[in-house]
Amino acid sequence: MDSKRMRNWILILLFLGWSLGNLDRYIMNYAVLSITEDLNLSSSSTGLLLSSFFAGYALMQMPGGWLADRFGPRKVLIAAVVLWSIFTGLTGAAWSLASMIIIRFLFGIGEGGFQPSSSKIISLTFPKAERGRAMAVMLSSGGIIALIIPIASAALLTTIGWRSTFVIMGAAGVIIAALYWYFIKLPETNPAGNMTQTAVSNQKGIFSSLFKTPMVWNLIIAYFCIYAVNWGLATWIPTYLVKNRGLDLISIGWVQTIPGVTMLAGIYLSGYIIDKLPKGRERLAGGLSCTMIGILLYLMFTASSVASFITYQTIVNLFIAFVVTLLPAIILKQLPSSVTGTAMGIANTGGQLAGFLTPMAIGFIVDAFNGSFDAAFWMLIGLSVVCIGAFLTLNDKKGDLLKQNEEEAYALDA
Questions:
Q1: Domain residue ranges of the chain, discontinuous segments joined by +
Q2: Please, where are the H alpha helices in 40-127?
Q3: CATH topology classification for 3-193+203-413
Q4: How many CA within 13 A on the CB side of residue 91?
Q5: CA of 127: how far to CAs of 69, 122, 193, 338, in Å?
Q6: Helical (H) or strand (E) element with 317
Q7: CB neighbours of 175 closer than 8 A, spacing ≥ 6?
Q8: d(CA 344, CA 60)
């Protein structure tokens, strides 16, 4: 199999796995409506349940990235899929709030190694000029799932129920892990001539060097802010539309396909735009996108009708898609491939901490304000403002160790 065909095949498999991972996560946002009734949960308890996955997911980001750099991303990738599949299946057996929280936390631990290891695989198999589009293809799975999950969840949850749904998805994950084990084979060097896996595994001080790199801190903050907005909306909009806008689950399923289409289109378009951006323009593009996100969030919660709310949600998804694609592309393009797994894990920890804190915070805010979501929207608007600052102050200078690694990579190619 030639190298280009091999790269495309690997990307298809990564896309397939991340599609299932997104499905496992997104369906909880709809299943929680039935789970809340079955387990008799308050808004605060529901927020805690929605956040429990992200606690484990955030905790595993840095270890997952380090393990991918140290032992190779293929092993970490397969282990991640097997573990998350086990605990996805066990979600259907939960009998109480405590058991559900523990299972979802362990599910997050399992899935936490996927993005750092898959990003590492992209950096090892794709040239720099193609990494933005490759990352966009993998991340577009989130847009596809966001598109189909409202209708699919309504069909599954109203026919076979939430317990059987999670068991079936767990079984699907085991099949994907087997495909990874059989088909994904990695080259010793990446197409840009970067270091071999053996050289990578012998590196020392990577965490220290990355944490001394100013750009990494900007990325952590930007990841936190944009994922707080993304997951704040994704986890609570179904509940918001039921309780505050009077829609039923089937109606939500249909109206949420519109923002889903936009998210999907936005991610594909973003990958192309990002690969064409001149170096240094990432800051301005990211800052402008976050500005539009803040404005559109305000228009969403002050919208006078469901139609206008969905219209603003549709547009805001375009800008969220761009920022979510831009952040990992910055890592893949500006840092040496030898540290992309660890760097992705560090930066994405910020995003997943947001995923842990934001649903829980919104639950407490809604309870505190007697069912009103206005204060929660203001919180998300404030985070979009912080994200603007993180982009505009982005510093692309690399630490000494990172520069040395990059120079060694090019020396190997020579």
A1: 3-193+203-413
A2: 43-71, 73-91, 97-111, 114-125
A3: Growth Hormone; Chain: A; (1.20.1250)
A4: 34
A5: 18, 9, 9, 14
A6: helix 306-334
A7: none
A8: 12
pLDDT tens column, 146-180: 778 777 887 888 888 889 999 999 999 999 999 99
How many whole angstroms separate alpha carbon 111 and alpha carbon 89? 13
Residue 249 is predicted with a pLDDT of 65
Find where tokens 């088909």 sit. Answer: 183
Contact 146, 264 (CB under 8 A): yes
Cα–Cα distance, 196 to 131 (Å, whole number)? 19
pLDDT at residue 398 in the model: 57
* Alpha-carbon gap, residue 234 to 85, rounded angstroms: 22
Helix ranges (H only) for 126-205 are 128-159, 161-183, 197-201
Closest CA to 90 of 80, 98, 99: 99
- Nearest C-alpha neighbor of 232 from the set 356, 321, 59: 356
Give the C-alpha distances (Å, rounded to integers) separating 349 from 67, 73, 174, 346.
15, 18, 26, 5
Asked if 126 contacts 134 with a C-beta cutoff of 8 angstroms, the reply is yes
Phi, psi of 212, rounded to the nearest 5 degrees: -90, 0
Spatial separation of the C-alpha atoms in residues 352 and 321, rounded to whole Å: 16
d(CA 30, CA 27): 5
Structure tokens at 200: 């990578």
Between CA 234 and CA 185 the distance in angstroms is: 35
Chain centroid to Cα 357, Å, comes to: 15
Residues of the chain with pLDDT under 70: 1-2, 187-205, 249-250, 253, 396-414
Q: What is the pLDDT of residue 191?
A: 43
Q: Are 124 and 3 in contact (CB under 8 A)?
A: no
59, 147, 150, 221 from 350: Cα distances, Å: 10, 26, 27, 6
Query: How many other C-beta atoms are found inside a 10 Å radius of the C-beta of residue 292?
Result: 17
Distance (Å, whole) CA 25 – CA 38 = 19
